[in-house]
Amino acid sequence: MKGDDPTPPPAPWVEALLVHERIPPAQPDLVRARLLARADAAPRDPFAAPASRGGPARPWQRYAVAAAGITLVAGAAAAFQMMRPASRLALSAQPSGGPPPPASRPSDPDDGPAIAASPRAAEPAGSAPGPRRRSSMADRRELGVGEIELLERARAADLRGAYTDVLAVLAEHEHRHPAGRLSEERDVLRVKALAGLGRGAEARRAAARFRQRYPRSVLLPKIDEILASLP
Amino acid sequence: MNGDVLRVKQAGPRPVPRETIDDPCRDAYQCELDYILRTLQRLGVDRHDVEDLAHEVYLVLRRTWHEYNPTRTLRSYIFGVAFRVASSHRRRYWREVSFASVEAPDHAPRPDQALDSARARALVLASVQRIPLLRRAVLIMHDLDEIPIRDVAATLQIPLFTAYSRLRKARREMEIDLAHLRTGGSAHEGG
């Protein structure tokens, strides 16, 4: 490992300390169980790329994913109807035929009460409501989940090739989360959608803005790949 | 330094239960959970936020799993995700790591005193957390995770020369800081 390292190696006594830290200490089983339970309870992405490293999905898995997707969409539509009067969203931006917005739409932290609706969206169906101890960090995390929902809608539209829908959802994301954690992913999707619509000049401008904004992004190769596909 | 400390068995990922074998992303998360949590700590995430951010790492991993190139080490990919999550968290909520939250030992050992593993880890963690984040990331990946420097540079999207430069500075900072901690110092002069 150090063979390609032209810098002076750590002093022997430092190396003797480092060797211990190279082994991540085992976390308590309770912590592991808690985190794995959260991972399993996280909303599944029914539109995830099927190129699983573990081999093709089995039929029952595909059916389960499809059923979960339908349930999510139906539930979201019902909840959206209930929330509609209070909705501040520009519905005109919602493409006809596209998936309805999620049931709860956590907005920016400054929006206050809207945040309270967000945690339920991340819970598995059928979970009983009840008092929960929530840290402020957990609330912020749920904001991230709200962002993820929007990006998932954009990705779903992207996979369908509905690039106009992608741009509409991304515009909504940018409006609701102008400095969101997933801004990088959003901007990559925008470049891809513009390229998909044949708006090459706009795609290149968006790519240039991306480079300027995220000069060290790990997604730059993806941008290059998209630009390379332009005529 | 006691020679015993060098005979540390490399701990591999924990075995994966059979029932999760069909979800490689979830399997990877389960196998590398200890590594993810420790990496977030090394990157300066407050211990009270570590679990929440580990979950965020999982969400990002699942969303981007199709982009993972299995010819590269899984840990370098995970580190890239964890680094972005921790950096984003830091930009928004980060505050200087107070000494109260650093797992520094109550009593610094004498230089000639053999350090047990937990104490050695605590010293290294406390020292690493004082290195500026960009340099710290290189040092963690290369000196702790033993990821080749070219992969480090690729993961962090920096030129190779920059990676070496950051590594050299970070090593120097850590050595000074460790020496200070070992002799019982607690103040930190700059980062």
Features:
heterodimer, A: 231 residues, mainly alpha, B: 191 residues, Rna Polymerase Sigma Factor, Chain: A, Arc Repressor Mutant, subunit A, 2 domains, 8 helices, disordered N terminus, disordered C terminus
Give your account of this protein's structure.
The complex is a heterodimer of chains A (231) and B (191). Chain A is mostly helical. In chain A, 55% of the residues lie in helices and 0% in strands. The longest helix of chain A is centred in the first third of the chain and has 25 residues, at 59-83. With 191 residues, chain B is an all-alpha fold. Chain B folds into two domains: 18-95, Rna Polymerase Sigma Factor, Chain: A, CATH 1.10.1740; 126-182, Winged helix-like DNA-binding domain superfamily/Winged helix DNA-binding domain (Arc Repressor Mutant, subunit A, Orthogonal Bundle), CATH 1.10.10.10. Helix content of chain B is 57%, strand content 0%. Chain B has eight helices and no strands. The radius of gyration of chain B is 17 Å and the shape is globular.
Task: Specify the helix fraction band of chain A.
Answer: 55-70%
Give the largest interface pair and sizes. A-B, 59 and 72 residues
Q: Report low-confidence residues of chain A grouped into runs of 5 or more.
A: 46-60, 80-136
Q: Over all CA atoms, what is the radius of gyration of chain A?
A: 22 Å
Give the number of domains of chain B.
Answer: 2
Instruction: Determine the number of helices of chain B (DSSP H or I, runs of at least 4 residues).
Output: 8
Structural class of chain A: mainly alpha
Q: Which percent band covers the strand fraction of chain B?
A: under 5%
Mean pLDDT of chain B: 77
Compute the separation of the termini of chain A in Å.
43 Å
**Are there runs of chain B of 5+ residues with pLDDT below 50, and where?**
1-11, 16-21, 96-114, 186-191
Span between termini of chain B: 26 Å
Oligomer: heterodimer
Instruction: Give the biggest beta sheet of chain A.
Output: none
The succession of helices and strands of chain A, N to C, reads HHHHHHHHH
How many beta-strand elements of chain B? 0
Q: Which band does the percent of strand residues of chain A land in?
A: under 5%
Structure summary, number of beta strands of chain A: 0
Task: List the total number of helices of chain A.
Answer: 9
Label the structural class of chain B. mainly alpha
